[in-house]
Design brief:
Layout lengths: L2 E6 H6 L1 H9 L10 E7 L8 H4 L16 E5 L3 H18 L3 E6 L17 H9 L3 H12 L4 H22 L37 H11 L11 H15 L5 H14 L17
Parallel strand pairs: 1-2, 2-4, 3-4
Length: about 280
């Protein structure tokens, strides 16, 4: 048995649990006799540049606390990645100590479907759009070398796509989800018949529809006259204005209304982290 942990670069540098597990790694009662840490280093934490996310040059520097070897490898070179992974596995098997593989790569699209990276990292993403994807780059090399034929390559791709499609189709067969299978200790009688927790009562915190409409209108307007606004952003603002008019809210507008109503009561709201440069969602 061999333990492998998969990390993101920002998480590896920023989550205290990484530092803690390194310090547990060689304790007599806790050791797993070495873990292979694979860091998928796309050089960006959601929307945060490395210089804003950590104080060390590499995200993997935290592994130095136990003198674990750290391999930085160009993820655009699959053979170099395989070589390094083999060395890491041999290290772990020989010395029973942790080892880190830092896959230096990039994230081709946004953090999720809603995320447009050109808003916050335009220079980086102009470069990324020019990059040939690693699969195509490697396939072209193997075909040029005569190691595989184009037909063999296309058959492999089709085979992999088929595996994914079949799994996706099978996933729809499960019609019923039993929440209790996911809970290790359901609490009988925690809720009353109408769904309210028995022991909790909350004072009403609602505000008038008039105030909500006001906040919605402010949240969908631009405060400065003759301000040139990004077309992607003006689309969002327009949609937000329409929602307010139609008495509909999405997650982002609901957040705006929550923040706005607290501000209207004279209470300071401080946002920190990734929401500051733009309201992410």
């Amino acid at each position: 048995v061999m333990s492998i942990l998969l990390h993101g670069d920002a998480a590896f540098a920023g989550q205290g649990v990484v530092y803690e597990t390194f310090h547990l790694s060689d304790l007599p009662s806790y050791t797993t006799n070495g873990t292979i840490h694979v860091v998928v280093n796309n050089q960006i934490g959601f929307t945060t540049d490395p210089r804003m996310a950590r104080s060390s040059p590499y995200p993997t520097d935290v592994a130095r606390v136990v003198n674990a070897p750290i391999f930085h490898v160009n993820a655009d070179d699959p053979e170099a990645v395989m070589y390094v992974c083999n060395v890491a596995a041999e290290w772990r098997n020989t010395f029973n100590k942790d080892v880190v593989v830092d896959l230096v790569c990039y994230r081709r699209r946004g953090h999720n479907e809603m995320d447009e990276p050109m808003f916050t990292q335009p220079l980086m993403y102009k470069q990324i759009h020019k990059q040939v994807p690693v699969l195509k780059k490697y396939a072209d090399k193997l075909i040029a070398d005569g190691t595989v034929t184009l037909q063999e390559f296309e058959e492999e791709i089709a085979k992999y796509d088929r595996i994914c499609e079949e799994a996706y189709t099978r996933s729809k067969d499960n019609k019923i989800l039993h929440i209790k299978h996911w809970l290790d200790s359901p609490w009988p009688g925690f809720f009353t018949v109408d769904g309210e927790p028995k022991s909790m009562s909350c004072p009403p915190t609602g505000i008038s529809e008039e105030l909500l409409t006001h906040i919605g209108n402010v949240a969908s307007s631009v405060p400065v006259k003759d301000f040139k606004i990004h077309s992607g952003l003006s689309r969002i603002l327009k949609a937000r204005s329409e929602m307010t008019k139609n008495r509909v809210v999405d997650w982002a507008l609901a957040e705006y209304m929550a923040f706005g109503s607290v501000l209207k009561e004279g209470i300071h709201v401080r946002l920190s982290g990734q929401d500051v440069e733009r309201g992410t969602f």
